[in-house]
Amino acid sequence: MNLLPARKIFFFLLLAVACTSCFAQKVYQDQQIRFALWAARDAYPGYFDDNKEGDTKEKAAEAGESLYTVPVQRIKEVTPYLLEGMIYGWKFNYTPYDKARRVEEYFEFSPVQTLTESDKSQIVYTKPWVQDDRLWCWVEFRRSPQMMHIFNSWQVITNPHIKGIGYARLADGFEGIKEACGEALKNAVREYERKLIKNKPKEITGRVMITEPPLIGIDAGRYVVTLDFFLETDRIVKYETF
């Protein structure tokens, strides 16, 4: 007698969870960008041999800073850079390594468009917390109508989905994150094009848009950045002769 109502309740619970998941994804993708970001809490990493928090506080006090001044600055430095890849995308130029032709690998990338100061003022940092000696917070940004148009244009065209992982030295700070992002993008493009192109091309150019919240971690003193993209290949230049 009670099995049918229980099944109905279970069905509606599953439906509610599914709808909640879809709604959350739609909010992130369509209007509200939201992801967690961190920076090392130690404002002066590696400065103290014993790495005691008390000494760090004393040094920060001498400099007229709080323990969180530098990590907050670092988060605010990284955020616009990542948002540019999520809102406008990155353009890239890639020359694969070719031992037979004595061609060295070359890769460069840059934002399709940078955020204005007005755009940056719309970034919201919320709910900070400290975990594993890192300062975390949620980053939120609402797309403008123009940004929504760009986002929708990527959705209309069937673009392949690619994914890559990149590494860089933790000691390099923001430049290290940029380097790891570049390596993640290069690896994603290289692995995808390898499946489509029989012979190594001379040059590949195109654009990508970050489709998922960036994942930034640490492994053996290095940043580990995992990025998902939509890929739009503009040009593939082949070697005319071997």
Task: Briefly say what this structure is.
The protein is an alpha+beta fold and 242 residues long.
Describe this structure in words.
The chain has helices at residues 3-31, 53-62, 69-87, 117-120, 145-156, 173-196, and strands at 32-40, 90-95, 106-111, 124-131, 134-142, 161-169, 203-210, 215-219, 222-237. The protein is of the alpha+beta class and 242 residues long. The protein has one domain (33-237). Helix 3 runs parallel beside helix 6 (173-196). The longest helix has 29 residues, at 3-31. The radius of gyration is 22 Å and the shape is globular.
N-C termini distance: 77 Å
Structural class: alpha+beta
Assembly state: single chain
Number of strands: 9
Task: Give the overall shape, derived from the CA principal axes.
Answer: globular
Q: Can you give the mean pLDDT?
A: 81
Radius of gyration: 22 Å
Strand content: 25-35%
Number of domains: 1
Largest sheet: 6 strands, antiparallel
Q: Which segments are poorly predicted (pLDDT under 50) over 5 or more consecutive residues?
A: 6-28, 43-53
Helix % is: 40-55%
The count of helical stretches stands at 6
Order of helices and strands: HEHHEEHEEHEHEEE
